[in-house]
Design goal:
The chain is α/β, with parallel strands linked by helices and 151 residues long. The protein is 40% helix and 14% strand. It has one domain: Response regulator (Rossmann fold), CATH 3.40.50.2300. The protein has helices at residues 14-25, 49-57, 74-77, 86-93, 99-102, 128-150; strands at 2-8, 31-37, 80-83, 105-107. Bound molecules: 4-nitrophenyl phosphate.
Length: 151
């Protein structure tokens, strides 16, 4: 089993989309995907209704996800940890115990060549078009990740 964790700040907008997208592109018998937030404000909450709506309109159901907070033992449980932006990166790296923890962590847009930013913008204070933009960025990234894992 290959275990992959998606991380953002709240675990209600961006990482639930990345979680659902990558899960939809990989066989579930050999890949386990999860997501978490570095913050604790939304623990136990479902994804933001706008993330649920954008995923649903693209054929992906993320409504059963529940937000949880990133924890140090995630470094042991997961092979790859993809964060959405530099702030998430700094927060996760601050919890790393040694270099092998740090080596698991990368910004998810680093897997995409032709993208203007390496940070997935936080859509929380935006509108549905911001969530659609996030979905599109994450769809490209997850396609690239799944292709390299299945190659
Ligand atoms: P996310 O977005 O990190 O993509 O889940 C956010 C959700 C909630 C908050 C910030 C970002 N918040 O401050 O509550």
């Amino acid at each position: 089993m290959t275990n992959i964790l998606m991380v953002c700040l709240g675990n209600i907008c961006r990482s639930p989309l990345a979680h659902g997208l990558l899960e939809s592109k990989l066989p579930q018998d050999s890949f386990y995907i999860d997501s978490a937030g570095t913050g604790n404000f939304h623990i136990g909450d479902p994804p933001d209704h706008r993330s649920i709506a954008v995923a649903k309109s693209n054929g992906i159901d993320i409504s059963n996800q529940q937000a949880r907070q990133f924890k140090v033992s995630d470094f042991d449980a997961f092979d790859f940890i993809y964060v959405m932006d530099q702030s998430n990166y700094d927060n996760v790296i601050a919890l790393a115990r040694h270099d092998s923890d740090k080596e698991k962590v990368s910004r998810i847009l680093k897997v995409v060549d032709n993208v203007g930013t390496k940070n997935v913008p936080d859509p929380y204070h935006g509108d549905l078009s911001d969530f659609e933009h996030v979905f599109s960025l994450l769809n490209n990234a997850c396609t690239s990740i799944s292709k390299s894992l299945l190659a």
